[in-house]
Design goal:
alpha+beta, 3 helices, about 290 residues, 6-stranded antiparallel β-sheet
């Protein structure tokens, strides 16, 4: 049985309100740069966030290190020129802080302060690895040893330093470890604050204008693994406390769970509109 012009119109045409709601939902969930990126986003292997209510006076240095402790390796009693924000990535370490010894394992995070005295070692038979970001006054020593170093010390994978000239005021210091399999890449993403990026394993192509190491607030970052093997990177972002940027999307998002209510409301509205539209057009069956 044929379809009349009226039936064709009824079957094919969606109300403008439904189209608008669909467009809003797509814009809300689609990551920034999604149309520009192909491949798969990198996997987040570890992440930690630290509130920094009173950052050092500008200018100050942000120093990011990835340290590997072989079994038996350690560091002597020492102190730092500023706060050190540490996330354990693998294994476990014993740390004595002002006379109190604590064991930290993969996934744990803690802070070392400039008025503290610390000594750490790997007492296990497996290697340990950590990511640490220090915020120290410009030109100040990151670490000062107070005794002779042990025979076996940690291996420093990388130690990039970035001068912060304009303090964002109170901010969140956000650390991540990201794994890019061959072919993984991101589209251009905007960072809310200064960003440090260290390639820990493999190689990675990163583009921010002409700068491929350190990224300033507001710049667009595009990264890709163009090699045949996996690449691992460590990042530290100094994100202003008033900002809410989705790391994978690079765009502001509502905070305090309000986006869940918005999404639920929009979904309910769309469902109701589609049901009304379907009921209204049942009178035009297609044989």
């Amino acid at each position: 049985m044929g379809i009349s012009p009226r039936q064709r119109s009824s079957v094919r045409r969606l109300p403008a309100r439904i189209v608008i709601v669909l467009a809003i939902l797509m814009a809300f969930w689609m990551p920034a740069g999604a149309a520009l990126a192909s491949g798969t986003d990198p996997a987040i292997e570890a992440s930690a966030s630290f509130p920094v209510a009173a950052p050092p006076a500008t200018p100050f240095d942000a120093v990011q290190l990835v340290l590997e402790f072989p079994p038996g390796a350690g560091v002597p009693m020492h102190h730092h020129g500023g706060n050190g924000y540490i996330t354990m990535l693998d294994g476990e370490l014993m740390l004595t802080a002002n006379g109190v010894t604590t064991t930290y394992r993969a996934g744990d995070s803690f802070v070392e302060y400039p008025d503290g005295h610390y000594k750490g070692w790997n007492a296990t038979n497996a290697p340990a690895r950590l990511l640490v970001t220090y915020l120290v006054p410009e030109g100040a020593a990151v670490t000062t040893a107070e005794e002779e170093a042990p025979a076996a010390g940690p291996k420093t994978v990388s130690q990039p330093k970035h001068e912060i000239t304009n303090s964002p005021g109170p901010f969140e210091l956000i650390q991540t470890i990201q794994r890019y399999e061959a072919g993984d890449q991101t589209g251009p993403q905007s960072t809310a604050g200064d960003l440090l990026l260290t390639v820990v394993e493999g190689s990675l192509t990163a583009r921010v204008g002409e700068d491929e190491k350190t990224y300033a607030a507001g710049q667009m970052v595009a990264t890709a693994n163009k090699g045949a093997t996996a690449a691992v990177i460590a990042t530290t972002e100094l994100r202003p406390a008033t900002s809410a940027i989705a790391p994978s999307a690079g765009r502001p998002v509502p905070t305090n769970g309000n986006w869940l209510l918005l999404a639920a409301g929009a979904g309910a509205l769309l469902t109701g509109m589609l049901m009304r539209w379907r009921t209204r057009h049942r009178q035009f069956p297609i044989d």
